[in-house]
Design goal:
The chain is mainly α. It has a single domain, classed as Farnesyl Diphosphate Synthase (Orthogonal Bundle). Helix content is 69%, strand content 1%. It is built from 15 helices and 2 strands.
Amino acid sequence: MLRVPHARAGSMEAVEARLAHQARLVESALERCIAPEETSPQEVLRAMRHSVFAGGKRLRPILVLAGAEVAGGRPESVLPAACAVELIHTYSLIHDDLPAMDDSPTRRGRPTCHVLYGEAIAVLAGDALHALAFELLARNAEIPGVAPGRVVHAITEVTKAIGTHGMVGGQVLDLLALRGSAGAPDVREIHRLKTGSLIGACVRIGGILGGATPGDLEALGRYGAHLGVAFQIVDDILDVIGEEAKLGKGTGSDVAQAKVTFPSVFGLTDSRRLAEEATREAIAALEPLGARGRWLGDLAAFLLSRDR
């Protein structure tokens, strides 16, 4: 168990309960976005739903809700954007699991999309989720009180986070690292882009859509960047020491594929220390927000201590 660098009061059980409540809110909205009775070709629709409703943590949409809350916005006002980032995350997982990438047979305790539906449908399901995500982002302008200019700003934020200067760029570096040696700077850059960029964008777009000030957005951005690092390090550690039943996927896959991870470069002891340091930095970044940043701080502490 990693040590939780968080001095504020509040039990982890309370944090988990709030996360579960917000995850249900997101889940209901996702059901409306990808309803089974849609007229889309049923094979691709089934593949999309299989991957979206596989029991994820819904962390990224919850961060969108949290960013909006900092700005005084209601969760309902940013639900389309929250669903959008979850669809983007899911599309990236579908493509990551493909034989040409990580070749993973399971995800969240279930067969991966290409195992059930074939590689071609899996690729198209990911493409469809990516397209639907941007439709949802644009439709956030239909919510009363959300100015279209904020929506454009949020869309720009997302595109930067998932393109060649963000998630896709990190995935490319991750693939290239398998072909040669990689050190500490490489692993930091790979995961800053591959994982941290989207996590950081989520909390910022919530703030943007909620009307946060430039100062608040700066604090949210610094928080998100450090949180993304901490989250990835814990993921890497759990791949080494976690329980398969809790993780919903096989452990040891990073080692088997010779992937560049924090434990492979820094070792487990230093990786734990780095995760704790990144979490402290994330919480410290919230100081300008005062009480408005309390939930995000509690969330960072909770994520450090997770076992799945």
